[in-house]
Amino acid sequence: MKPIRTSVIKTELLIDNLDIATSQYLDVYDPGNFSQLVGMVAQATTFQVDQAVSSAHAAFKEWSKTDLLTRSELLLKAAAILDAEAPHAIELMARESGMLLNINKAEIGMAANIIRDNVELAAEFLQPKKVEDDASWVSIEKRPIGVIAGIVSWNAPVILTMRKLAPALVCGNTIVIKPSPLACMGISMLLKKMAAIFPPGVINVVHGGAEVGDALTTHPLIRKISFTGGAKVAEVIMKNAAGSIKDVQFELGGNDPAIILDDANIEDLIPKLVGGVFRRSGQFCFAVKRIYVPENIYDIFFNRLIQEVAKFKVGHPLSAGVTFGPMNNRLQYQFIKDLIERTRQAGAEVIELGEIMDPATWAQGYYLLPAVVKHANPELEVVLTEQFGPVIPVVSYRTEADVIRMANQTELGLGSSVWSSNFDRALAVARQLEAGMTFINQAGTSRLGQKNIPFGGVKRSGIGRESSEIGLGEYVEYHGINYHKM
Ligand code: NAD
């Protein structure tokens, strides 16, 4: 079918607060309707990556000397810009990424709050720590690092970018962002509006794939790389960073277990749990990726679960009534389709649920129905790997010791959740999980948690943390000054 060229958006690079065109553009098609060309995105050359880094490096000289109040005021204005621009960005985000409008709206609101949280936390965090005795005076001071490379994935581009940009800038660093080619237009539109209120060079944006990523992560003027994505690319980045001894911070994949204890209130938990599995059609890092249920309540639980999953209405994110969008890209779509096939071949029962909203256009997008694997064997591939899509295995267990062992048996350790009506019992289980985060009776953080919990994972789920004062700590160097009194 010939592409329809309606409201095609052109996204350029952003260097020194200027739109920079290139000779090569990437066509972006709607993953929910392949016939729609959404936009064209400038692909940076290595020379342009160097220009962006040099611009950030030049801007660092003055920006790093600005006082915290100035930086904080500008960031708060940037948060207000995000809120104001949200209505103009959410449709574009839906068309380029397949994510629902209400998800995009919530994402931008949360991203604005991430900026506000960082500003608030920085006021105390950046104060020097002073100690003194009769012989000497010591000050431990926090300094910006320099130019940061922020590289992000496609699944929640605004949140992921702001988790890097806000702490980097409030601590006095400058930044070069590389969004994912699979969701770069909405975030670029927002970044351009935000960057305009900062001195040129403080925020720069380059576009491209692995080649641009390599140029950025090997650049000698980049002092730190903050990366959100998969472990395979993280391995490459770590090698690239080694060449000039750059620091790295990684937010990688998860295979988050949800542990249902036998005293959990099934009626209350099911809607929350289903949201935790299938929001963004299962495409988010701390989505629930495997569910463990005591065998004595398995049937009641499973029947209630499939009733809830069956309510999803699958279709294009801009169509009325749709509650479940397409996969973001072909690779993801094919991986999940193949994984379901392999799961069936291994003898498991995979139940596909939900309503197809428009059968006529089903084959025109990367559409999958939400799927549930009944009585999943704990050793199945779908249990042990990160699926990052809408198929959820439900495993039965006998004892708490068994379920804790199964929950910890993967190389990933991002989030996790425990569901129980007994806080002490749930807490005791939570404390035995190998994960960066555990949520009790929810599949995500509260507003208080978003601000205070360091976000990230253990083992192959990452290095370092984002958010909270721990996340701010990723963007400073320490400078110790010791005055000898005699
Ligand atoms: P990916 O690793 O393929 O890509 C991530 C980014 O890296 C993209 O911008 C990509 O263009 C870039 N990239 C590719 N090659 C590069 C190179 N050689 N050098 C530098 N950059 C390069 O991951 P993805 O498919 O975008 O995202 C999916 C993965 O991300 C999943 O595993 C998911 O769990 C994880 N993720 C983690 C978090 C978190 O906070 N822990 C959040 C979202 C997604």
Secondary structure elements and their pairing?
Layout: E1 9-11, E2 13-15, E3 18-20, E4 25-30, E5 33-42, H1 46-63, H2 68-97, H3 101-125, E6 129-132, E7 136-144, E8 147-151, H4 157-170, E9 174-178, H5 185-195, E10 203-205, H6 210-217, E11 222-228, H7 231-242, E12 247-251, E13 256-260, H8 266-278, E14 288-294, H9 298-309, E15 313-314, H10 330-345, E16 349-352, E17 355-356, E18 371-374, H11 381-384, E19 391-397, H12 400-407, E20 412-413, E21 417-419, H13 423-430, E22 439-440, H14 447-452, E23 458-459, E24 462-463, H15 468-472, E25 476-484
Parallel strand pairs: 1-5, 8-9, 8-11, 9-10, 11-12, 13-14, 13-21, 14-19, 15-17, 18-19, 21-22
Antiparallel strand pairs: 2-3, 4-5, 6-7, 7-25, 12-24, 16-18, 20-23
The site of nicotinamide-adenine-dinucleotide has 29 residues, from helix 6 and helix 7.
TL;DR?
The protein is of the alpha/beta class. The chain has helices spanning 46-63, 68-97, 101-125, 157-170, 185-195, 210-217, 231-242, 266-278, 298-309, 330-345, 381-384, 400-407, 423-430, 447-452, 468-472, and strands at 9-11, 13-15, 18-20, 25-30, 33-42, 129-132, 136-144, 147-151, 174-178, 203-205, 222-228, 247-251, 256-260, 288-294, 313-314, 349-352, 355-356, 371-374, 391-397, 412-413, 417-419, 439-440, 458-459, 462-463, 476-484.
